[in-house]
Amino acid sequence: MKKSILIFNMLVILSVAIFTECKSSNKKNDNVFEEPIVNFSKEEYMAFVMNSTRMWEGVVKNIETEYNNNPDDPMLLYKLVRSYAGYTNACIGNQDKETFDKIINNAENYSKALIKLIPKWSKAYALQSAIISSKLAFEPQKGMMLGPKNQKAIEKALKLNDKEPTAWYQMGGNKLHTPEKFGGSISKAIESYLKSIELYEVDSISKENNWQYLQSLTWVGIAYDKAGKYSDALNSFNKALEFEPDFGWIKFVLIPDIKKKIAELSAN
After folding, report:
1. What gap in Å lies between CA 148 and CA 170, rounded to an integer?
2. Most buried one in 43, 44, 64, 126, CB count within 10 A?
3. Quick one: pLDDT band at residue 32, thresholds 50, 70, 90?
4. pLDDT tens, position by position, 94-146
């Protein structure tokens, strides 16, 4: 009888230990967000390559319609925010302040909705930074207010996942465009862009139709140019052109400009 009671007690203790361990394990897993891979569409990619606000408008409208029909789909909301980030970027490239003013409220509202829906998703904060950066491009006088907000979004993204390439790209832009006395650094911008590129190149799937990868290749070249490292800039631009031979900005503007600088340097 005593032996049976002893065995019973041991089983109870063992059961409690297993339950406690499982509960602790589940609690730990609750704090881990498995970041999904969200593919890029050909439409997004071509809108970026052509730097077309009209094409981006079409991309946004199509995703927005799909999202309105499926408002519980977080991946559609993410794609919508990402497309708005591309759209606002095209507005900067075309200096189209009028269109930017029409779309920025939607971009911000969808961005906030995504963060509220999935507050542990690194990409959500990286895209928030992209949208804030677009506001800074059009309203640099608001740098004292928007700059810290942008930095906070980037830091949050990297804290959640330090292998998120979009966050590193945003860090690069932040370092490149911030005055040195406020923490800007061309060398740190280059490091951040290179980190972004390295992470995008982990596998070929993440590069397919990936306009953000092409964007990183382009801007690390621009950062090298600003640092006076013209050969590195040309190599980066050539790599971007190899990835996308029809990228006009690289082909007709950035490469000819950097080749001219290299020639002038050689002449002297």
Report:
1. 13
2. 126
3. low
4. 999 999 999 999 999 999 999 999 999 999 999 999 999 999 999 999 988 99
- CA 218 to CA 216: how far, in whole Å? 5
Residue 115 sits at the vertex; the CA angle it makes with 138 and 52, to the nearest 5 degrees, is 40
Amino acid letter, 9: N
Distance CA 138, CA 93 (A): 11
Cα torsion for 85, 56, 64, 104, to the nearest 10°? 50
Query: Taking the CA of residue 113 as centre, how many other CA atoms within 13 Å lie in the half-sphere pointing to its CB?
Result: 19
Q: What is the pTM of this model?
A: 0.86
Structure tokens at 197: 């590129």
Please give the distance of CA 168 from its chain centroid, rounded to a whole number.
7
- Count of other CB atoms within 10 angstroms of residue 198: 13
Structural domains of the chain, with CATH:
41-161 (1.25.40), 163-268 (1.25.40.10)
The Cα diameter of the chain in Å comes to: 101
